[in-house]
Amino acid sequence: MASNTVSNHGLAATLDCDRHENTICLFIRFTAHTSYAVDVSVDVSVRDLKVAVAEKAGLSADSINLVLAGQKLQDTDLLKSYGIGSHTVLHAFCLTDQRAATGDARRSDTGVKTLHPVSDPSATNGRRERKDLEITDDLHNLHGGLDSELGNRGQHNLERSTGDSTPQTRHSPNNALNRLQGYYRFFVYCKLCDGIRPAKLRLVCAGCGNGAFLVDRGPANWDDISTSTTISGQCTSKQCQCTQPKFYLRCCERHEGDVDGTAVVLKHINTNRRRVECIACGDIASHVLIFPCGPGHVTCLNCFRQYSSVCLNERRFTEHERHGYTLPCPAGCQDSYIEETHHFLLMGKENYERYKNFGAEEFVLQNGGVLCPAPGCGMGLFPEDDETRLVKCGECQFESCKDCRAEYHTGSCGQMEHLASSHAIDMGITDEMAERACWEQQSLSLIEETTKQCPNCQIKTERSGGCMHMVCSRCECEWCWICVQPWTRDCMAQHWFG
Amino acid sequence: MTSMEKRLQKELQAMTKDPPAGVSVNTNSLTSTLSEWIVDIEGAPNTLYEGERFQLGFKFTSRYPFDSPQVMFIGPNIPVHPHVYSNGHICLSILTEDWSPALSVQSVCLSIVSMLSSCKEKKLPPDNAIYVRTCSKDPKKTRWWYHDNSV
Q1: DSSP character for B1?
Q2: Could you tell me if residue B42 is inside a domain?
Q3: Domain of B99?
Q4: pLDDT band at A198, cuts 50/70/90?
Q5: Selection from A176, A155, A154 nearest residue A81 by Cα
Q6: What is the pLDDT of residue A383?
Q7: PANTHER family from the entry (chain B) (predicted)?
Q8: A281 vs B7: CB contact, 8 Å cut-off?
């Protein structure tokens, strides 16, 4: 909010409301550069708010329109019936009927006073088409239902905001408020907060980015808020003929400046309104992750964290062609993969980094690539499809053999050449001393001694106990530790346990 | 309380309050963290195991229920069954690769009772001798080949 922002001392008194917990601070935004801070009680009506804003902005209250969730706020409704929280930004515009209004009407409408800050670019032409209050959209808690129950609620809210609800239908505004404020429907991973946060659904005009955009209906599902939304509406800006809204979600915390791209939608996370038990711990958590399987199994966020961490450690994630490196419902339901991999941020940053590495490796391997075997490298490489076995890493320059994944060698695979210990300067170092002091060679020989290569994918595998029936954690090949060949019934009969 | 403890508390409550037929938790055996249980089971009527009593030992890691419990027959009476080794190890896929956190102590017990009930002939697994002689103490360290689901 630029220099034009005026903090409104005394407005609460004007509105005759107490400064208690019901007082909220709203930002009334006319244009990108013109907004006013207003303290009001949630118990006042929209009309009262308009009067306060009109006084502050030097406009007629009748000329002001306020927009919430793509819908005009109705004069007789109380602010609390919309579930507006503090620090909500409302967009405002000045015309009573955008389509019917002519340029003259606008002038007469707003010409009474010319109090608009000149930073409004539209004011520089002297006509002041939209000197106006485009009040806001803070869609959080409005619109929203993403399943049938939510859909009904969304509808209910919209009825309210379109003014169809008579005073009788709003018999318990307090309940409505509690209900609305208690239930955020959308959750994002906020990169600025570095955590999961409830989110507000917002919209702007897809054409000009104007926040005062009126939609014909509220969204009822994820498709409705996607870029291919079928919801249309009208922009209140005179210059803009766009009929397409652009929905987006933002973190509910206040973040200054540009927040574009800082919130990732976590579509599987929801408030546990139905009080369903977690499939793992049996607790009824306040927030749950709902798997996209038929029964809609839920886990609490803690158990999801644990589930994905255990699976990560055991490399049980699957590379899914559409959803990426992901996990299914822990109950093993069909078509239940997590569809947005940012949910795995719940594992914490460190694990998420490992997750990304594993995912990238899996992608490389599944697409015919290899990983650079040099210690500490692991770069994904796509060798040329030719005769040569030499694969050179572009990152660390290590040269490896495409077939046995060891350091590049001449001759047949399986006879790994040991690094020749060359003593260019004779300092009296015996071979034995060199052997003991050789960092790299020691770990290499340790790996040689303790591992065997999977007969299918050649990954070096360590056996940590148990039977001789190995299952490759990378390619799932079942093989025999003794024969280093695929597992057979003979292996089981003769040396299952060695 | 860890999620493993919370989950096991709930399972214990459900099983002591409303135990399934032929299955009862031996509450004297429980440790404070609930990481080990003993469950008494009884052979179902009209089966080869009618009237016989067995004990199942459960061990849970802190990763339960994402990690399967270790389950084996313990005590003096080990059922003679083609999928039960004489050391108590059980070859049952839900105990390893088909485990899911949606399963529970109760569902495992019922599966084992049902596995016993469907048996047509009391005999040891064909590879019992070598298995028992060489296997690891922990049945979860055995990679089974689940060949036959009929018994």
Answers
A1: -
A2: yes
A3: 3-136
A4: confident
A5: A176
A6: 84
A7: UBIQUITIN-CONJUGATING ENZYME E2
A8: yes
Asked if the Cβ–Cβ distance from B3 to A281 is below 8 Å, we say yes
Contact A281 B134 (CB under 8 A): no
pLDDT band at B121 (very low <50, low <70, confident <90, very high): very high
Question: Residue B134: pLDDT band by 50, 70, 90 thresholds?
Answer: confident
What is the number of domains present in chain B?
1
Q: Do A282 and B102 count as a contact with CB atoms less than 8 A apart?
A: no
DSSP codes joined into one string, B86-106: TTSBB--GGGTTT--TT--HH
**Domain annotation covers residue B147:** no
Give the closest of B4, B102, B138 to A330, CB-based.
B102
Task: Give the CA distances from residue B88 to residues A134, A338, A366, B17, in Å, rounded to whole numbers and listed in that order.
Answer: 75, 38, 40, 28
User: How large is the average pLDDT for residues B108-129?
Assistant: 92
- Domain assignment present for residue B73? The answer is yes
Which domain CATH number covers B57? 3.10.110.10
Among A294, A269, A351, A368, smallest CA distance to A317 is for A351
Give the pLDDT mean for B53-75: 94
Question: What's the gap in Å between the CA of B50 and the closest CA on chain A?
Answer: 32
Greater pLDDT, B60 or A471: B60
Residue-averaged pLDDT of chain A: 73
Of the partner residues A279, A470, A487, the one whose CB lies closest to the CB of residue B101: A279
Does B91 qualify as catalytic in the annotation? yes
- The least confident of A118-132, A266-280, A368-382 is A118-132
Would you say residue B23 lies in a domain? yes
One-letter amino acid at A334 equals Q
* Chain A neighbors of B134, CB-CB under 8 A: 496-498
Contacts of A60 (CB under 8 A, 6+ apart): A54, A109, A110, A112, A113
